[in-house]
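Notebook p. 47: complex prediction with adenosine-5'-diphosphate.
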Amino acid sequence: MIGRLAAAPGPEPAPLLPLEVEGLVVELGGKRLLDGLSFTLRPRRCTLILGPNGAGKSLLLRVLHGLVPPSRGRLRWAEPDPARRRLAQAFVFQKPVLLRRSVRGDLTVALAARGVLRRERRARIAEALALVGLEGFEGRAARSLSGGEQQRLALARAWALRPQLLLLDEPTASLDPAATRMVEAIVRDLAGRGVTIVMSTHDLGQARRLAEDVLFLHAGRLVEASEAAAFFARPSSREAGAFLAGELLA
Amino acid sequence: MGPLGISGEIGEAAVTALRLLWSADPELLAIVALSLEVSLAATALAAMLGLPLGALLALARFPGRGALVLLVNAGMGLPPVVVGLLVYLLLSRSGPLGDHGLLFTPTAMVIAQTILVTPIVAALARQAVTDLLEDYREHLASLGLRPLAAVPVLLVDARYRLATACLAGFGRAAAEVGAILIVGGNIRGHTRTMTTAIALETSKGALEQALALGFVLILVVLAVNLAAAGLQRMARRIEG
Ligand SMILES: Nc1ncnc2c1ncn2[C@@H]1O[C@H](COP(=O)(O)OP(=O)(O)O)[C@@H](O)[C@H]1O
Ligand SMILES: [Mg+2]
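Predicted complex, structure tokens below:
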């Protein structure tokens, strides 16, 4: 039912954002992994979550996507209905999860699950593949693509769902520079189309290239939340300063 | 008898065996046909029972599920003669199902092999769907599909491993002798299969027919393995 509504043409869907996060705590297995995070996600911004390995970047993205429930604290979305919130988001995992079928089959499952009508799917698929430079790949086995192509397919699938918010977990972590550049270009393209982007990375150069806002995490705590220009020019915390200076953070 | 004598005898038997095969001896063909029919029927039944059972064990959470998984896994190693004995007791004149007169019929053999093969299909199917769900869980959740709503996706994507599970079951059934010997009785022209014939003909010293059937049985096993290898190659193309 909700899927039908989301797929139907007509008025713009209700806005998902802004999101106000207040005192977010996540504890798993008796360990506090996210420790009292408070920040605001503004619509149509490109936010990068920065921090060393194990800081809690992936976990924060999963909480935003509703895959992991907060132990404490509040996420106040502009959209009050949790089911509609999920429909307004898409997630791209660090290691793309692709089905054991053709590229078309993979995209079709995603579109069908989100309630996109059959007659609309073909056009969505063609358009999404064109966006990521995978025209003509419909019949290929999704998992036989190269690493870079697989991640672009994951981006095409995310875009085909027409999300307001796109969450990306280190999408270029295992890609070579050429494939990384392509993925970054697609992310920029999607941002230009009005998609709100929240993306994690431990790659400083990538953050400089893409970020409008920065969330800097360290050991489960939000050490800095600021606009990118300010963050890179004058980090206000010792940890961020050390990270920017290229020092190894534990 | 010296070694030369034995090998001479085996050589003669082999020649006769090939002649039997070459001339498409009707009795031989009937035995081969019955073997394939029984094992294919048992595998088909086991697939109908075992595939849904495996998927259920992978996807659903209910009390007793852990015990059932253990039972199914243990069932993979059921000794055929014990299964044969149990089915025999069930179907014998004084048994609970004795009134149907099924003992020493091909139906009894299908029942026994179905019991042998179902746990194999179910256990392999459960593992296949579990692995797939592990891989897909977050993506499916992200799409808003609950595990049960995702069953069609999982079954289609596990298709090669599910087919391989059925092949493994068929291989076990086709090579099995203990269960069908007990419940079928190796009655000539009625319940005689390749494995039961080989077992009894050999013990009676009738090597020609045993060898001829042995060849065919090996061909069947080879074909099963070839099919499994073919499935695996197709799977690798799709699964990356
Ligand atoms: N489901 C979980 N259960 C227990 N610990 C977890 C779980 N997920 C993540 N962690 C732990 O939380 C910390 C942060 O993990 P993660 O968010 O993956 O870091 P990052 O993405 O910044 O490298 C790590 O120490 C990790 O081991
Ligand atoms: Mg991570």
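Notes: The mean pLDDT of chain A is 93. The pocket of magnesium ion (ligand 2) is lined by residues A 57-58, 169-170 (CB under 6 Å).
Next step: compare against the earlier run before touching the bench.
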